[in-house]
Predict the structure.
Amino acid sequence: MGEKLSINPITRIEGHLGVKVEIESNRIVDAQSSGEMFRGFEVILKGRDPLDAQQITQRICGVCPVSHGVASSLAQEQAYSVNPPSNGRLLRNLILASNYIQSHILHFYQLAAVDFIDIKAITLYQGNDPLLNGLKSWAEQQISSTTAFPLAPFLPRYPGQYLESAELNILAIKHYLEALDMRRQAHKACALFAGKMPHAATLIPGGVTERVTVSKIVAFQEILKQLRIFIDNAYLPDALEVVKGFPDYFEIGKGPGNFLAYGVFPESDDGAKLLFPSGVVMDGKAGPFDADKITEDVQYSRYSSPSNLPPGQGQTVPDHAKPNAYSWLKAPRYEGKVMEVGPLARLLVAYHRDQGGAIKSQVDAALSILGKTPADLNSTSGRHVARALECKIVADRCAEWIAEVSPDGAAFKDFTIPQQASGVGLTEAPRGALGHWLKIEEKKIGSYQCVVPTTWNCSPRDDKGNLGAVEQALIGVPVQDSKNPIEAVRVVRSFDPCIACAVH
Amino acid sequence: MADISRRTFMGLSLKLAVMMGLGVSAAPRIAECLDELSKGAAPVLWLQGQSCSGCSVSFLNAEEPGPAAILTESISLLYHSTLSAATGSVATGLLGEVIKKGGYILVVEGSIPAGMEEACVIGDEPFARQVSRAAKNAAALVALGACASYGGIPAAENNPTGAMGAPQFLEKENIHLPYMILPGCPAHPDWLVGALTHTLKFGIPPLDEEKRPKMFFSKFLHEQCPRFADYERENFAETFDDDGCLFKLGCLGPNTHADCTIRNWNSGVNSCIRAGAPCIGCASSAFPGKIAFPFYRKSERKV
């Protein structure tokens, strides 16, 4: 018997997640991932007007509301047989993309990097930067004062091995501060077309309600310019420096090795051409994606509803006292297999299936800087590199989409809601593959099911006992000091979990 | 950061004064307030329950002062699940010490599953118990956002977890302390920053009968709507890309108290109604409405 350890709450993610691990000879030999919060969105949506859905489902998650709004709009558009005009498609891409940018920057600096950079290094700063000197004097005053909780919220933390170079730490701290401004700027760009963020007001089946003007196009371009400078000169280089500083993490945190992407960012009005294509990668081989192969198991999830159902027939009946259940997440599987989703899955699918090859060449360029192969990306570090690369690819593409928008052109196409219909909305949130399954009965929502990125990544065991993707990634992780299991939380955070999404 | 110039300081105070509806004459007092706070930061404990973190993300959108300045100059953010370095047992240990010491402003984000406490658990403790414990030792409580204020979407019809807002929960637990609510889905960052600043310097701002700061929630959106002239002229939008007043599409501006239409969102670049989207009343106690009353009344419209 090894030592059992509960790491709960896992902070610096979205929402309420805990993991229980068993450690033998300083390695994790068993893991359970528990989503700890349930609200019941699918129960609450039943009977409501279908047009409520793209607003209500956005409130599943305040970090990636746009993705839910888009998934719901796509599901309804399938049910209403309507497609947005070009401007509607482009504005949706820009709204979604600018939220990807804010989410990825936030994840790297505010959530994940705190496990690698040493905030206390600020006291060693000797330069003239007023922001850094301000932070330095705050830190010195906090450390020398009698306050009970100095340097909150940056201390206390796990004692562990952080980056050693004072220079790199100070640069990363400077970028931590700049990242706060950059992600706010990304939301500002988003709100130009979304009305407000979080929770975009303008998303609607048939397109978006916002009208495009030249001044809005120019404003978006100005903000985008700053974001691209930050991504090229801070985010991407910092992500590469951090993973170089912790070379073991290309070995630590390997997931199941199966990757799934539904595809996102339509580049044609019929939705056939996507910036990131759909597909699966299994055992290193790429293949097409088929939505009919998705099922959700609930044997270890706190639901009394039947297990192993396709989402179109999914049910959500909470049972908080269910024996042996240890999570509010269901366990989605593809052909019965455990899949990893997210920026890494999108890049790997595109690497194998992207017809233009533009994404492949960018991945190859980053790999050559690091001296790594595509297989090495299945790791804690690989996920951070993939997210940063994706941020650059998306921001660069925004410059093309915004140039295609026609001022004052229609961004919405009208529709009628049928008596009975069904629709599936498949897109990608910053954290991975996102699907909404909708049934309309007598013009009202008959059933609504969401299968969300972190549901895939942080799922509990399925009916056959297969561990979820994060659970698998934790197996074999070395833990030097079981009181300070920083290695384990680094692995979990590389998936960028969002539990509000995953359970909903 | 801490070394901002006197001139920036006054500019900031002026902006804050106007933002809080206090008028220009209050600016010097606010400057003094910020000055004092930079010497001793006010402790804030931020707990998330059945939330989407949208109000936290919205707080990060605060501008002048931005989150970094607020964290280092105005408050001491003792614990926040999304920002704190502490995790696992370090986090639960920290939470225990903070609550034991007491005297903080407690920010609650998200609803409380009072009917099914297992529906939100943090470090093996139900959120309901954690909030109850934390509220008993708090100096004051801020219920941030629709869910913490009124229950929000988790407490909508068919509410499977017995979700409720913080005021209702405090009453149920028989806990009495000064509190205010800042509804909205999410709450506007100015509402939080303005309300906190006011509380720290002048005490809790004047509140209405629902405990909302009057300075942000005293008027209907409709009264300050950029499309009010269209309403007066009976120029109504019939579908989603039409010009005109959005009333016939279901706009809830006439029933919703908030200042979004004049404050605007995300550094003031836009608002729902300006962007052609009917107000869904996210700052109202009725949000997200009843099953029988959809947000958008598209199917009822005359075409």
